[in-house]
Amino acid sequence: MRSRFLSNILLTFIWVALTGSFELLNFVFGFVLSFLILRVITLGKGEVKYFTILPKVIAFVFFFLYELFKANLQVAYDVVTPKFYMKPGIIKVPLDAKTDLEITLLANLISLTPGTLSLDVSNDKKVLYVHGMYVSNKEKFIQGIKQGFERRLLEILR
């Protein structure tokens, strides 16, 4: 997988050098073009993990940016209005993530989002304790983490 990614980057830089345009849009176009070229070249050689993970990583980045933007708006609205809409709480989130890497990445993604903070992981690594500023419905909060960050993260890592 690493060699496919490096090949994709190398082909992107070759594209940029040949066109002579060092703009972001040209880099993105070169990356997509080289991705498609590598995909066509490896079509008859079975399932190559790189071509299934890369679209998931890109979708995950956009999902995270959307969640980040949404959480920032919610916290900013609460700050500028005279009434507080916070309903803080500490929630036990059961984990499907098993490895230290999966749990660490999930906890950091939760903490990076305004209004939520990962507090602790149980000793058996089956529960993550999360503080949320807006916990009006406990089950909805848990499902938001499990079906949002955790599911998408595990799709990429497994």
Question: Explain this structure to me?
Answer:
It contains five helices and three strands. It has a three-stranded antiparallel beta sheet, covered by helices on one side. The longest helix has 31 residues, at 50-80. The protein is flat. It is mainly alpha-helical. Helices cover 63% and strands 11% of the residues. The relative contact order is 0.12. Strand 2 (116-121) and strand 3 (127-132) form a beta hairpin. It has helices spanning 2-19, 24-41, 50-80, 100-112, 138-157; strands spanning 89-94, 116-121, 127-132.
Side by side, the strands of the main sheet go: 1-3-2
Taking the alpha carbons of the first and last residues, their distance comes to 13 Å
Along the chain, the helix and strand elements come as HHHEHEEH
* Overall 3D shape: flat
How many runs of DSSP E, i.e. beta strands?
Answer: 3
Q: Determine the number of helices (DSSP H or I, runs of at least 4 residues).
A: 5
Residues in helix, % = 55-70%
SS strand fraction? 5-15%
Give the uncertain stretches in residue-range form: none
Structural class, judged by helices and strands?
mainly alpha
Mean pLDDT: 92
Largest sheet: 3 strands, antiparallel
Rg on CA atoms, Å: 20 Å
Question: What is the fold's blueprint, element by element?
Answer:
Blueprint: H1 2-19, H2 24-41, H3 50-80, E1 89-94, H4 100-112, E2 116-121, E3 127-132, H5 138-157
Antiparallel strand pairs: 1-3, 2-3
Question: What is shown here, in short?
Answer:
By secondary structure, this protein is mainly α. The chain has helices at 2-19, 24-41, 50-80, 100-112, 138-157; strands at residues 89-94, 116-121, 127-132.
